Amino acid sequence: MSDQMKESDEHESKQQERIKKLIKQWQTNGLELNDNKSMVDFVFVYDYAVQKTCTKDGDKQIFRLRDTQRITIMTLLTSDYKNTLTQVSTGEGKSLIVTGVAIAFALCRNEDKKNKKIDVITSNDVLARRDSTLSVADGGLRNLYEYFNVSVANNCSQWVDERTQAYNAAVVYGQLANFQRDYLLDKFYGHSIRGDRTMDLVVIDEVDCMLLDRGNNTLYLSHDIPGMEMLESLYVFIWEKIRSSSIGSDKFNMKESVKSAVLYDLYGAISKDDLESIHNPLKDQPSEKNALWDHLIETKVIDPQGRLLMEDKIETINFKPQLDPKIIFYLLNVSKRERNIRIPEHLMSFVDRHLDNWLDNAMQALELKRDEDYVVDQDRTDTSPDLHPQVIIIDQDTGMDQISSQWDGALHQFIQLKEGCKLTSQNLKSIFISNATYIQAYKKAAGVSGTLGSETERQFMHTKYKSLQFVIPTAFQKCFYLKPTQVFKSKDHWLHAIVKETQQIIQPEDQAKARSLVIFCQSIKDVNVIRRYLKNALGSKLNDNHIHCYTRDYEKFAFEGKSLEIGHVIVATNLAGRGTDIKISEELRENGGLHICLTFLPKNERIEEQAMGRSARNGAPGSGTFLLYEESPTGNKWDAGKWLSMKEERQWREKQRISRLQEDFRTMEHEQNFFDELSIYYTELKQELKNQKREDQAIKTICDSVLDIWALWLDQTEDHLKLTYSYHHDFLKHFRTGLGLPDNNMTDNSWMTPVRSVTLAKHLALQKSSLSEACEILKRVIDSRDSDLYPAAHYYFAFVLIQEDFKENRPKFIQILQNCETILSNDIDMHLSFYRKVALATADQTPSFCVVDAYKQQKDNIVKILEYFIGSARALIGSHYCSASNLKEAGKEEKKEKTFLKKAEIFLQNIRLEFVRFQKERKSKCKSEQKRIICPEQADKLFELLVEKKCITCRLNDTDTIPNRDAIIQQVANEHGIKKDLKDNLESVFGQNFTEKQVEKNLKKENLIPCTRKAFWEELRKEGALQAVKGGLCSQMNCVIVLDSECDVEPSSKLNSKKLSRENRIKIEDFQFGLDSFDHKNNCLNVLYNPIYDNMKDLLKQNKIMFSKRYVIERLGKEEYRRRKENFELNQIAQLNLNKLETVTLKFCDPLEKDDFTQANIISNSERDCVWKALIDQQIIDSNGELSSNYQKFSYPECPAYEQPVMRVIARIFVAEIVKRQWLRAAKDPKCLKAINLLPLKPYRDLLGDLMAAHVISGARVTEDATLIEKETKEIEDEDERECVRRFLKSRQAIYAPRMKKYEIFLDLIEMDIRKIPNTVNISTELHTFDLAAFNHVIDIKDGERSWKSYLGATFAGVVGVASIGVGIFLLQGKMLSFGFNKNVLLMGGASDILYAITTILTHSKFTWADYTRQRLRSVMGKTEPIEMIKTIYKLYDLSENADFRKAINLAIGLERWTRQNRDQINKGRATLLGRGVEKIVLVNHQTELHFHIQLHYLLQDFGSFILGKTKKLVTKNLTEIQKALTQFNELHGTKTSQHFIRGKLNKLISQWATEGQKWVCEIIDETTLKLNEIAGTGGIPLTQEMANKGIRLMEPIFNDYEVRMKLIRITVTCIREFLLGLENHANPEDPIAKNIDVEEFKRFPKKMMADIDSELGRQVEKILNILRQQIHQVTSDQISRLANVNSEMFTTLSHLM
Fold first, then answer.
1. Which ranges carry the Helicase C-terminal domain (predicted)?
2. Mean confidence (pLDDT) of the chain
3. How far apart are the C-alpha atoms of 1353 and 1358, rounded to whole Å?
4. Of 873-887, 1410-1424, 1499-1513, 1666-1680, which one has max mean pLDDT?
């Protein structure tokens, strides 16, 4: 026995030695697949490798390849066809086949005698990562590749450098989209991700899915076209119309109706039948109507489609005298129509092409159902930073989530509106490649699948892909029984049959035969329905742990890695079909195996076979059945013929699909030809622009514009791509001119879209030499018809103006920013209206498990960004409003303690001025009580003083800044029904120095608006129609409505002020209003002055109560009432006597006159006469123009278009009388009481608001005269008050005003500012939208002048520094002190002082003794190296694009100054970003600890961003020098020697950097620990907010410290220099260079090494920063928050979340 074992061991040893030799031979010389012996050897070695790597300890038998696997591998390896496809039944081990084929081909050589590169396409990233990275023990296959020394990787990473590294491997796994993405990035953009990787061979798993189901799929690289986001207005308009249409109405009529509304809004499109509203008799005169239509077309007023063309030609119409006035009136109203849709001009043709399709898709969106066709859920792949729920398409074939896919034709957008998700822009095809085109780019393809499909499908693959197909028999005989199919006629019978089938399988009469089953459902909704039905029907018979659902690919399959026992039910979608390996237990196998129940008919045989293939695997028994359902009103079950007809229908549909697939392939071929031409042009253009030395931003903008044109052209010609190839061949000859692409000279940029033009102009505006060109581009956009769509053009035009001669451009500057503000305000109104319309049109659906309010959040975020730009525009021109309440807020700061000298000065002054002293004591008492610098009473007086002294003014803007001012005033007057000369009244009022209240009061005196609500109410009260409510608690009519919680508010002043008592409220039993209060006997009822509530119950529903105003004032006191007044609703209650109301005669306005019809645009005198006569005839008015008692709706058949405008004029003039008559009907209809809303509540305030919105007047604004402010505020005696007032005024002054002499203007990115705004959650997508619109920079102005104190302080520091160095040198020469002391205290300290002085002066920073002392102490401690700091500044100076020393210093320290400002506000805003994630993990406790760590996270994030950015720039700058050194070294030593030597040097560089980086981390940790020891708590004391804030404040200086940040940069510089020095020291070769050099390898070597340096160093920086983050969080937890101790799970979760 021992001899046999010994002989066996010797045999095994020899076999292993032989295998090693073979593998080494293949590695050296390559594997020859054409040699039969080599083929046999490889299969033998691979089988041996499988035995050694896949056989687990404890297995009863050795794991070996099956014969079918060997046959498949040999078939694929020896086939001469370009594409070879094999069908291997499910469960037959396709993964080992794919691996074997990949390894064999990877060992082969290509035509260049290099090892072949193999790409393996899997169905998803999970499988790719599993097979390429995991060991066999963990379910992967990496051990097999390692056995053959074949490198393997995957391209699933989101990071480019990691994917670049992966493509160096011999075998790369990934899903098809990943390969296509990197292929396009390389081929089109030249990113060189794949390097020199050749397209030798691709191995495709589930090849039928890739070539048939997804063969015509196309991958697009993201290219956003500016302006596509503006289509939202059209989507919302269509969706609102579709949703508001009656349910079940005729779809065709609905579509035509909505289409007409869209075209009317967009173009003013009218139809021939619309002409009947001009002249009703045209209805019976078709020839006359046709003649008018033809006349309008001939005169080019409209086009043949009825679209309005030339608005300026309307008034010149000359058709027939009696009809011309009516035609002009009608068409003018069309031209002045209210617009809801705003589409840029360059997208109008795009809208025309797709409008019909969008309307169809909007109606389809109503029919598509959640959890059937799509799901609404968060992105579970972690590829998106947006945590909001999204619309995710479910692949009906596989059940997989398609996160990155969208339905086209705006269908996806309509579903997003339907579900309230964030709206995304519609994508157009631009940079793309189809699945079929990409796969055909490989020299050879090998594919395996469990199903190659029907004969039709196989024939298609054979014809299209020139493929050879094999069907491999199973290793074991199939033992599968298919039960008879049943098709039911009702859903209830269908569900009952499923329950019965389930019970028979898991609970048979003979329990010893119990089995398990999988129920396949068509949708997630069906899964949920069937699961609930099973639970209800079987009840306790079915254990909760024995029923499983599998519907989403992020969910873990319940039986992954373990065997399925008996008695289990799995309810799943197709997700459990393809690729799911269900292992069964021995007991289940003996009982008959797994049972499959298909509850729907899959759309092809392959999906059916994949589902049924989950059973009877590897020789095990199994069974299956179809339980189907098709609605029918009669009977319970269909006969057998129905099953056959369903399969025949499926077969017919499949043939149709293949036919369409063939057509799609022809179209894709044409598209690919055009795309290839574009790629050539794009590359040439890019190179030409580089040769012209254009800036990178300009090149990007121009190239993006080319892609815009290409995408729109391709969309336009999509229908023509189905023409013959000869057409396309002819067109390709003139491709560039036919497409309209610009020439390479780029002398003219008018071809660019407006947004791209703004982007280019903004870039040019930053260059002083290109201001004129930028100005010309922006003016072209502003002067275009779409000017109102591009606020960015106005905003950045102001940026250009302020850089030029500002004094000359000032009026234009103010005018352009006012226009910008108006456009932005309109945009805000538009987005708010979008939300209102979508909210009203939201479909009534079953609520999702997650709250969907993303669309609301999106609108909120956009509004915040728009408001931010409005604030910027107002700050620039000083138009932001200021009031006494603002001054009160500014005066809330606590009064600072005065210094001893100042106290002495005040004391001496008080002795001299006793009365002044008394006044100051009184004010001081007021301020100390209120803890304010300025108390409220004093603020009112100070504000009036500022107005009196003209420091704050309300003024009528001049015509220089508002050229059409007088026309706007007249328009506003017409809208408010003012017949007096509004312009003269405004000039009179604003000619005096009034506050806003005084302005409003003086306008009221002029009685410009005679009929107001107040006047109406007072008139009725005077006539006795309105009286105080009798017997109630509100005898003075005035009441106050408050929230119930206001009764619990403690008064701020206890003196003469008490809480409101609920007992004294106006109770429902004491008082009612509306119809509930109607007194039939006296014919009266109670009414509200502002009827926002229908009755008292409506009030109570909103948790509000009512008090008498007199009671509230008496209870609270006047001061407390004034303070809380803004929280109260003021109203009036009165008893309306309908009998007396009827006798009241109202005289608020003059009678109607014919000239009033001018307001309705009825200009012709003859037409006015006709309308006047018709009004009298219909008894609407009498002959004197008074409103008749029985007026009715105006009817005018002569011209129906007049009816509504005339009625609006009548309603405006007789509004008081109309309200009165409506109130008389209130006893029958209580809604008539709301007619009082027709009367303006605060008309003069509305008037002033409209004038202010039109920039005709300005509110209370601070004067631009800074000298006047200084002069007039001297009268304020209290110094603190005076300084507070001056700060208040300067903060609201125009930004340019105090800086007219010297300032620096620049553009800054908005992102940091926007993220500071509270509650800006998930705002990244909105910021991207503004980036796309070129509206992502804000104008900022920095004062170029600094106070003499800063200069003096900096000069002092410099002098001290020079003196310190001089003393140090003297003492050093005299050997009076040690060198170490001299170096740190005197020499280095002096150099640090000089550097601090220089940076303070050149960067215009404020000198502070605290900063100076801090840097001095650091030098004493030896923690500063100013010499290295100077070197670094010069290094950063070299990195900057513009050689500007001042910019270099700003680059070095600017971030520190930025992050110091408003840190608390930054953290407050940022903390909300993780709020939703916190809610997800239910972290409801320890909020203080949580937010402390969140603040710390963002502090570290800023710190890390700075380090990463500077390191990247440093490496990029040195890459040229490194490349030069590498190339030179390679030339001297040869590639082989260079690779070995430089790799060692690189490892040394990385190792040295990592060591120094670890020391750097330790230093920071030590310093942080020392700081935190000052506030370190004990385990029993919880963290308070005060301690948390103090901890952050203590750590901020550490991470913002310039020396700390730059030390790691210096380490990087040192390591790179030593690396280069090491290459220089080995410049002379020791051995002669071999003459036979691989040229390609020689060229590739330096590039590869540079990529390795960049990648490795970047990875190490991230690693070091991650270590720092983890240790800082741990240290702070140990020292302050104790979070890791009190809740370790939370701390771990939070760390992962960060």
1. 500-666
2. 78
3. 9
4. 873-887
Spatial distance between the Cα atoms of 810 and 780, rounded to a whole number of angstroms? 20
The pair of structure tokens assigned to 1020 is: 């009725």
CA R_g for the chain: 41
In whole angstroms, what is the distance from residue 1281 CA to residue 1273 CA?
A: 10
Instruction: Kindly report, residue by residue over 1267-1290, the tens digit of the pLDDT.
Output: 888 888 888 888 888 888 888 888
Q: Which residue is associated with the tokens 């398990």?
A: 516
613 exposed, middle or buried (CB, 10 Å; 0-12, 13-18, 19+)?
buried
The distance from CA 1587 to its chain's CA centroid, rounded to whole angstroms, is 35
Residue 261: phi and psi, rounded to 5, are: -65, -40
Cα–Cα distance for residue pair 453/430, rounded to 1 Å: 33
**Interaxial angle between packed helices 1602-1625 and 1445-1460, expressed in degrees from 0 to 180 and rounded to the nearest 10:** 140
Give CATH for domain 479-638: 3.40.50.300
Contact 306, 271 (CB under 8 A): yes
Half-sphere exposure of 848 (CA within 13 A, CB side): 22
Backbone angles phi, psi at 1615, to 5 degrees: -60, -40
Residue 1618's CB is within 10 A of a number of other CB atoms, namely 14
Highest mean pLDDT among 329-333, 672-676, 1468-1472, 1504-1508: 329-333
CA distance 362 to 368: 10
Contact 610, 451 (CB under 8 A): yes
d(CA 1033, CA 1069): 12
pLDDT at 22 over 70: yes
pLDDT one-digit tens code per residue, 825-881: 899 999 989 988 888 766 455 444 445 678 888 998 999 899 888 888 888 887 667
3-state secondary structure 33-91: CCCHHHHHHHHHHHHHHHHHHHCCCCCCCCCCCCHHHHHHHHHHHHCCCCEEEEEECCC
Report d(CA 259, CA 363) in Å as an integer: 13
**Which amino acid belongs to residue 1677?**
S
Q: Which residues contact 1589 (CB under 8 A, 6 or more apart)?
A: 1464
What is the C-alpha separation between 556 and 18, in angstroms, rounded? 43
> Per-residue pLDDT tens for 1628-1685?
554 444 444 444 455 556 666 666 676 667 777 777 777 777 777 777 766 665 544 4
Instruction: Please say whether the beta carbons of 1210 and 1180 come within 8 A.
Output: yes
**Per-residue pLDDT averaged across 896-906, rounded?**
43
Whole-number Cα distances in Å, 745 to 735, 739, 1292, 1443, 1526: 18, 17, 48, 28, 37
Tell me the one-letter amino acid at 1226.
A
Query: Coil, strand, or helix at residue 1537?
Result: helix
CA 768 to chain centre: 34
- Give the dihedral sign, CA 121/122/124/127: negative
Return d(Cα 820, Cα 814) in angstroms, integer.
10
Give φ, ψ of 1391 to 5 degrees. Answer: -60, -40
Query: Which CATH architecture describes the domain 23-224+433-472?
Result: 3-Layer(aba) Sandwich (3.40)
Q: Tell me the pairing of strands 83-88 and 486-488.
A: unpaired
Rounded to whole angstroms, the Cα distance separating 20 from 1399 reads: 67
1155: number of Cβ within 10 Å: 10
Q: How far apart are CA 173 and CA 124, in angstroms?
A: 10
pLDDT at 795 over 90: yes
Helix (H) or strand (E) holding 1653: helix 1639-1676
Alpha carbons 1419 and 1384: distance in angstroms, whole number: 6
Beta bridge partners of 1657: none
463 and 665 in contact (C-beta within 8 Å)? no
| Dihedral in degrees, nearest 10, Cα atoms 484, 488, 494, 499 | -30
Please enumerate in sequence order all residues whose Cβ is within 8 A of that of 340, keeping only pairs 6 or more positions apart, or say none.
Answer: 233, 237, 265
Task: List the alpha helices (DSSP H) in 1374-1486.
Answer: 1379-1381, 1388-1402, 1409-1420, 1426-1439, 1445-1460, 1463-1471, 1475-1480
